[in-house]
Structures are given as structure tokens and as C-alpha cells.
From TrEMBL, chain A:
Residues 130-165 form the UVR domain. InterPro entries: UVR_dom, UVR_dom_sf, YacH. Pfam families: UVR (PF02151). It comes from Novipirellula caenicola. GO terms for molecular function: kinase activity. This is Protein-arginine kinase activator protein.
From TrEMBL, chain B:
InterPro entries: Arg_Kinase, ATP-guanido_PTrfase, ATP-guanido_PTrfase_AS, ATP-guanido_PTrfase_cat, Gln_synth/guanido_kin_cat_dom. It comes from Novipirellula caenicola. The keyword Kinase applies. Residues 27-257 form the Phosphagen kinase C-terminal domain. ATP binds at residues 30-34, 127, 178-182, 209-214. Belongs to the ATP:guanido phosphotransferase family. It comes from the Bacteria. GO terms for molecular function: kinase activity. Keywords: ATP-binding, Kinase, Nucleotide-binding, Transferase. This is Protein-arginine kinase. Pfam families: ATP-gua_Ptrans. PROSITE patterns: PHOSPHAGEN_KINASE (PS00112), PHOSPHAGEN_KINASE_C (PS51510).
Length: 185, 362
């Protein structure tokens, strides 16, 4: 049997069972099989982009979509356009910042919008304090780059204080984490 | 990295999950659970700077090393490994293809029995994975839940009151849980029932995929069943969906198909299995694809009592040990594909012709 995309013999016979229209059998040569399986590993992206496409077709006009695409997370800088194309978000704050657009997507993918199940035993940081910590970390890296080590160590102390407030148990690794800034310099 | 990673010794053994025991182990190879977790104070991997990645890796490592029971854990710096060594870890299912091929700081922590591994800087900051031989999701869950609790004791996770554990991809948000059961279903394939069975599964929130070895080798008659959704169901109910509803049903179908084959077709089946055994134990060179194909038949033959002097555990190990990186590690040097075909045949012969003690692979 020949590969369905070229003249080489088909050595891979792949049954695709995740197609909504039912199982589909592919007969492929090694090279095309590799390409196909590679693509397969990206399937979460496909499911996100498909669900988004469906949702956008239903709800939004071209103009609204263009506006939405421009929207950028103030913490990590990811645009909705980039998210739409990669299926990956940029930071935890995106779930708050893009909330209005993510909720229909979550409903589409999971048929639910609210977490049920395990929760961290200690107090979780609020979306805002998580965002603040990420931003502080970025500033710290910038300070190190500018060789402003005083500022960098101020920020590091501030980050530590925030972590402590969120009741991270103080542990022996304190030394390890305080050497972080030094290692970078 | 401060430890010499001696993969050559590792290559001679296999993970606990391949031991071929545990409930339903004639059909279920392994149960795997993974949790996706992210640190609260870093962007997700896509948006991390190189410094962020270094810092995540160092922080997580330091905190893991401070945990009790760390002593036996092996911490492997993936960035420093050769291509063959990365491939080797992928073949053992300790790391994903994705993290093997990625750039920048990334690592994996593995326990000596290879029952759990923690990938650092994969698609999420942490991918915690537990593997178990046979169908035993409760045991696997107990273990991963405890490990997650321990990590949570020293790492602040990204968590949202409403949306749960926050992940880079919205398909994992909520529990961050993926339960995967690997099944060996040769009789359903032979009887051409497999598609019908899976069509009936599609309505119930699970994904079924044919399984492929690394380097895209087809790995005969293996299928993986996983939960599709992660949000809006508790971990317990997702485990129950896969482990108590879907998988037992598939097992039942496979058993029926095996009984049918034995009854209707004993001679053909026996002939088929014996030929497979014959080729594997006499060939002078053999490809990885062919090996998978015939090992699958032999495995079924062993489980149906048509072959008696080989153990299932041995067959399970051969599936892994005959893959390219493993062969090269066992042989102690880099081999081209035609050399590998010769070595593979020699290796199979040595372990299938009964000259070796049961399950002994060195
Ligand atoms: Zn082709
Ligand atoms: Zn963001």
C-alpha cells in the first residue's frame, strides 16, 4: 500500500480515534507519519483554537474580534491574538484579565466553569498579589541587568515578605533562594 | 549537575510500572496520573525570560531537596544531556517529547523505582507524574496527592478561587489532572471490534488514542484512555470515570474477544502467536516496528496460555529495551539504524530463547 500523501510505501497505519466524525484510518510513509504525529502532540492547541473559532463566529463581529485581539495583559504582555494562535496563556493573571473572553471558552472545552476538587491547604495568593509578584520579579531582573544591585535586593526582600505573608513555611532553603540574586549578578 | 547520570546502569533495569503485575495486568499495562502546577510568582513558560526559567529550576530544586525523603531522588538536568540520553528518558516515559526537545533550563526529578517523576519547566512549571503497573488508580492517586501536598508545603502554587489550579493551557485548568490508562487490546484489533468500542466511548468525556513509540514507531495494539476535561469535576470523580466506568468496560470487551478467538479460531491463533515468537527468537536483524508488532502477539499468547516459558514482565521490558536509545545504552555506544536492527535481533534472541533466567535482562 502506498502512502496517502506520496509515492512511498505506507508503513504506518494510524487509526485516529479522536475525530468527532468517527475513527479515521491514515496510511502513511514514515516521513508523513512523523509529521502527522508531531501535529498530534499539539492537539490541546487545536482544541483551544477550534473552540475559540466556534465561539468567535457566534458572538463577535470582525471589528469586535480585531479589538479583542489587541488586548494585552498588563503583567506578562501577551495579546489575545497570541493566545488565540498558540493556545497558551502567558501568566496566571490572564485568567482574571481575559476572564470575560475565557469563560465561554472554558464552558466550551470543559462544559463547566467552576473548579470542584482539591484546593491548596494554605491561603492562595489573590490574583492581584500574584500579578504584583510577577511584576516585581520582572523589575528585579531589570535592576540586575542595569547593575542596580541595591534596588534588586530591595525588590527581593519585598518578594520574600510577600511570600511570607502568604504563609510559606520558612525553611532551610532560604539560603538557596537568597543566593538567587547573587548568582544572577 | 552534581551527579554523574549513569544511564547505562539504568538501562539494564526497568521501571516498577513495567513489572506486569497489579489488577487486570493481562490487559492493562499501566496507570498514570499527572498533575499540572505552576508557581504563583512567575509568568507561564511561554512568557518566561531565561532568568525566570533558571530561577524556577533552582527554586524548585532547592525546595525539593529540602523535603524529607529527598535522598533517594535523582535530579537530572535535561539541558546538559546528549540527544540519546534525552531520547532514553522519553522511551522510559520519565519525560515528555516536548521537554526533551525544548530549549533552556529544564529538569526532571525521578525516584529510584521510577514510579514518579516531576518535570520542571515543561509546558507548565511543574508536571508531577505517578506511574503504576496494572489498573490501580486509587493507589496512584494516593501517592501523587501526597507528593503534591508536600510540594505545596514549600511552593506557592498559582491558584484561583473559582478556576482552580491555573495552567498555561486552558484545557488543563481546574484540577490539572490527567488520568491515562494504557491498554493492550490485540483481540479487539484482530476481531475488528476496536472502532466500534471506541465509537461508543466518545460520548463520555474520554479520549482514546493509539499509542506510538518514540521516533514514531508504531507500538502494536496499545491504546491509551484519558479523561478529556479537568474543570468542574473532582479528582475522585475523574478517576472513577476512567478507572471504574470506561476502562472496565473496555477490558470486558477485550476479554470477550479473546474468548471468542480461542473458541473459534484456536489453531489459527496459536499458529499466529507461534510464528511471531519464531521470528522474534530467530531473526538476525529486525526493525523496531516489526518487533512491536510481533511482541504484541507474543504478549497476548502468553496471557492466553499459548506460550508458557516467557513471563509477561519480560515482554513488557522488551517493548522498552528494544527501542533505539535503550539499545544504544545497553550496547554502550551510538549505533546507526542498521546496526541497531542487528543488535535488536541479538537482544531479543538472548531474552526469548529461555537460556536466561526468568525476567533477567542484563
Ligand atoms: Zn508519504
Ligand atoms: Zn498575563
Amino acid at each position: 500500500m502506498k502512502c496517502q500523501y506520496c509515492e512511498k510505501p505506507a508503513t504506518f497505519h494510524i487509526t485516529e480515534l479522536t475525530e468527532p466524525s468517527g475513527p479515521k484510518i491514515m496510511h502513511l510513509c514514515e516521513e508523513h507519519a512523523r509529521g502527522f504525529l508531531q501535529k498530534e502532540s499539539d492537539s490541546p492547541v487545536a482544541s483551544v483554537t477550534n473552540a475559540l473559532a466556534k465561539q468567535l463566529q457566534l458572538g463577535q463581529s470582525k471589528k469586535e474580534l480585531a479589538e479583542l485581539d489587541q488586548k494585552e495583559c498588563p503583567v506578562c504582555g501577551i495579546s489575545f491574538f497570541e493566545f488565540r494562535n498558540t493556545g497558551r496563556l502567558g501568566c496566571p493573571y490572564d485568567y482574571s484579565f481575559f476572564e470575560a473572553d475565557l469563560v465561554p471558552l472554558l464552558r466550551n472545552i470543559h462544559d463547566a466553569v467552576e473548579h470542584v476538587g482539591k484546593r491548596p491547604r494554605r491561603l492562595a495568593a489573590s490574583a492581584d498579589s500574584q500579578a504584583e509578584m510577577i511584576q516585581l520579579r520582572r523589575e528585579m531582573e531589570e535592576a540586575v541587568e542595569l547593575e542596580d544591585y541595591e534596588r534588586a535586593s530591595e525588590i527581593r526582600d519585598e518578594l520574600k515578605r510577600m511570600e511570607r505573608e502568604l504563609s510559606i513555611p520558612a525553611s532551610d532553603d532560604d539560603d538557596a533562594s537568597s543566593s538567587e540574586g547573587e548568582n544572577q549578578s | 549537575m552534581n551527579q554523574e547520570t549513569d544511564f547505562t546502569n539504568l538501562a539494564k533495569s526497568s521501571g516498577e510500572w513495567l513489572r506486569g503485575t497489579g489488577p487486570e495486568s493481562d490487559i492493562v499495562i499501566s496507570s498514570r496520573i499527572r498533575l499540572a502546577r505552576n508557581l504563583a510568582d512567575f509568568p507561564f513558560i511561554r512568557r518566561c525570560s531565561d532568568e525566570d526559567r533558571d530561577s524556577i529550576e533552582r527554586t524548585v530544586r532547592a525546595r525539593m531537596e529540602a523535603m524529607e525523603d529527598w535522598k533517594d531522588i535523582r535530579y537530572i538536568d535535561i539541558e546538559e544531556l546528549s540527544e540519546v540520553d534525552r531520547q532514553f528518558l522519553v522511551e522510559r516515559q520519565l519525560i515528555s517529547r516536548e521537554i526533551a526537545d525544548a530549549d533552556g533550563s529544564r529538569a526532571v526529578a525521578v525516584d529510584p523505582g521510577e514510579q514518579y517523576s516531576v518535570m520542571i519547566n515543561e509546558e507548565d512549571h511543574l508536571r508531577i507524574q505517578v506511574m503504576q503497573s496494572g489498573l490501580d488508580l486509587q493507589a496512584a492517586w494516593a501517592r501523587i496527592d501526597a507528593l503534591d501536598d508536600k510540594l505545596e508545603g514549600s511552593i506557592l502554587y498559582a491558584f484561583h478561587q473559582k478556576y482552580g489550579y491555573l495552567t498555561a493551557c486552558p484545557t488543563n485548568v481546574g484540577t490539572g489532572l490527567r488520568v491515562s490508562v494504557m491498554l493492550h487490546l490485540p483481540a479487539l484489533v484482530i476481531t475488528r471490534q476496536i472502532e466500534k468500542v471506541f465509537r461508543s466511548m466518545q460520548r463520555i468525556n474520554v479520549t482514546v488514542r493509539g499509542l506510538y513509540g518514540e521516533g514514531s514507531q508504531y507500538s502494536g495494539d496499545f491504546y491509551q484512555v484519558s479523561n478529556q476535561v479537568t474543570l468542574g469535576h473532582s479528582e475522585k470523580s475523574l478517576l472513577a470515570l476512567v478507572g471504574d466506568e470506561v476502562v472496565p468496560q473496555i477490558i470486558q470487551y477485550e476479554r470477550k474477544a479473546r474468548a471468542f478467538l480461542i473458541e473459534q479460531n484456536q489453531q489459527d491463533l496459536h499458529d499466529d502467536v507461534s510464528r511471531a515468537m519464531g521470528i522474534l527468537s530467530t531473526a538476525k536483524k529486525i526493525s523496531s516496528e516489526e518487533t512491536m508488532h510481533y511482541l504484541s502477539k507474543v504478549r497476548m499468547g502468553v496471557n492466553l496460555g499459548l506460550i508458557s516459558d516467557v513471563e509477561v514482565a519480560t515482554i513488557n521490558k522488551l517493548f522498552i529495551h528494544t527501542q533505539p536509545a535503550h539499545l544504544q545504552k545497553l550496547h554502550g555506544r551510538v549505533l546507526g539504524s542498521s546496526d541497531r536492527n542487528v543488535q535488536r535481533a541479538t537482544y531479543l534472541q538472548r531474552h526469548l530463547t529461555g537460556r536466561q533466567g526468568k525476567g533477567e535482562l542484563n
